Recover the amino acids of this structure.
């Protein structure tokens, strides 16, 4: 479905981003992986995806909190593939603290990585997309882009902001063959959430099982974690020709969390 397309997926060395990268490669897209991690493990991942799916896979360790590195990531994709058809703004971090104790540097980092990186990457790829009259911008926000939870001021602000950015870009670029949509997942059991389970168990003085049942999945009507593969399938659809008329949406895949 994505043959002859090239895609950048930020934060794709782990979790949801890696799931989307795998699904894009499985559909024939050439991809640029991005994110942090052990160099040997990332190289094994990169080479493994190339072997398994017969596509080109490149890697950039660009730090998404640094605008010039975001621009370099776009440049690498252009140099390697000649064009960037799809970007998935997925890199994200979380920090949980009461507002009065919320560390200033953490606020800046969450906003930079979860929101501003998307602005810089979109800005860098749009001229090429406009010239080719094709582009797919997919932003990974969260149910926290649509609703709030206590102690997540920076994350909730960034994810609401990402939906606003996506809608604005969607109206600006609608007549250029470029779409911009946002996926809003509920809880997915990735390394980001594994860490939160441990942190919240400590903070609340309850067991990890209670954190999952009573804190995380309490709002999700389905009471199950969202699967990375489900989100990846939605991203593939949004990247496809079939989604040409779909733009500016914020699609919840949250097990019935935000319907309350
Ligand atoms: P994860 O921790 O498994 O993966 C995050 C990825 O981002 C990793 O590849 C990491 O190396 C990369 N990353 C972090 N900081 C970076 C930086 N400065 N520059 C470049 N890469 C960086 O997390 P995940 O759960 O897969 O989260 C992916 C996205 O999905 C995030 O935006 C997150 O907010 C969102 N999300 C996650 C959940 C969930 O329950 N896991 C729910 C809703 C939304």
């Amino acid at each position: 479905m994505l043959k002859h397309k090239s895609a950048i997926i930020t934060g794709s060395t782990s979790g949801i981003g890696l799931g989307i990268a795998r699904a894009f490669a499985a559909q024939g897209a050439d991809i640029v992986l991005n994110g942090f991690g052990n160099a040997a493990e990332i190289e094994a991942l990169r080479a493994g995806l190339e072997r398994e799916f017969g596509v080109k896979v490149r890697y950039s360790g660009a730090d998404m909190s640094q605008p010039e590195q975001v621009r370099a990531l776009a440049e690498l994709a252009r140099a390697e593939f000649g064009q960037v058809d799809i970007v998935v703004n997925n890199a994200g971090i979380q920090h949980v603290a009461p507002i009065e104790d919320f560390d200033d540097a953490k606020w800046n980092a969450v906003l930079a990585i979860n929101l501003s990186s998307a602005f810089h990457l979109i800005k860098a790829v749009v001229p090429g997309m406009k010239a080719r009259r094709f582009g797919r911008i997919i932003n990974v926000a969260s149910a926290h882009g649509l609703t709030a939870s206590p102690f997540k001021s920076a994350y909730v602000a960034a994810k609401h902001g990402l939906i606003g950015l996506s809608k604005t870009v969607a109206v600006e670029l609608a007549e250029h063959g470029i779409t911009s949509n946002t996926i809003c997942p509920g809880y997915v059991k990735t390394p980001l959430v594994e860490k939160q389970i441990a942190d919240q168990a400590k903070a609340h003085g309850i067991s990890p099982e209670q954190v999952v049942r009573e804190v995380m999945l309490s709002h999700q009507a389905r009471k199950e974690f969202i699967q990375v593969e489900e989100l990846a399938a939605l991203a593939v659809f949004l990247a496809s020709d079939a989604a040409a008329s779909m733009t500016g949406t914020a699609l919840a895949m949250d097990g019935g969390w935000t319907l309350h």
